[in-house]
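Translate sequence into structure tokens.
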Amino acid sequence: MKIALIAGEESGDLLAAELMAALQARRPDIRFVGMGGPKMQALGLDSWFDYKTLSVMGFVEVLKHLPALLKLRNNLLKRLVAEKPDLVIGVDAPDFNLGLEKACKRAGLRTAHFVSPSVWAWREKRAARIAESCEQVLCLFPMEPAIYAKYGVDARFVGHPLADRIPLQPDHVAARTELALPACRHLAILPGSRASEIDRLLPVFLQGAARLKASMPELHFLIPAANGLCRDRIAQHLQSHPLPDARILDGHAQAAMIAADAVLLASGTAALEAMLCKRPMVVAYRISAVTYAMVKMLGLIKIERFSLPNVLSGEDLVPELIQHACTPEAIAETLRSLLAGSDNPALIARFEDLHRELRRNAGNAAATAVLELLKTS
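Result follows.
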């Protein structure tokens, strides 16, 4: 049996590697081909192209690299049609993989997609078009299959890999020891890993933190940087918006969350990770005024809650400061209330409940769904 996997970025490489390991445990005869990173290659993937080509984020970045991306997709399609794998699985990267899967399906290949686009958040009707690309969608969140069912798409909830990796009760003391933190309160600040997000959000985050520092002088700050470029960007913003007792970390985002007394972050997967780390948080996010006006005018977003802890629970578990509410004053005041309060056992208990719901051994559950799909004609 031969399965093709197409993954880009480190997150896709890790997710696909977990699926590969689970499949190999049941079917040692499976051969893996396609495109992936070092973790997939360590498990035997015959990677035809450099997976980092897909590490392109943002509209401007995509436009700049569009010729290379189209060439890569065309070359992948030719190779896949020639190799004729039993199944082609696109791992995340929906803008790239769904188009590739659609072309593969038209060429007579069987296809699946691992990690649903955020149809629960915006442009729900994309779920119907995804059926044109793949036979099955493997979903990380429990609310997603019901959306696909409305459009007749086979979708399976397999759980979220982060819920498998993070302990139900993270060790706060061990994380502080790992990072060699002084005995005082700490706030972790995570403005995102894209340059555009850092430039848009970090200045307001730093201004809010500086206001907070004025009333809580003992407070220290941890700012994890995803890579060297992010570190340089963060350092530049700290020069423009000085924040005493701020420390940039090279990676260690999860340890910073666990070690901190609270977290200030952009909406997205980081909010889910902070929830799994059982940390109180403030979610703050804003996009350009033009983009926000277009999104509102076109009605593309119809959800009331934006952060994953609130979406998953259906409750306002964590404060959200979105768009016009994302100001230094609001950030400082919301965090001040959060840090002034005692530990909230009820909130931690809800976070644990959600953690258990997401903890399904995602790689193994995805492997079960894939093998079941391959049994059908």
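Note: The CA atoms of residues 2 and 78 lie 16 Å apart.
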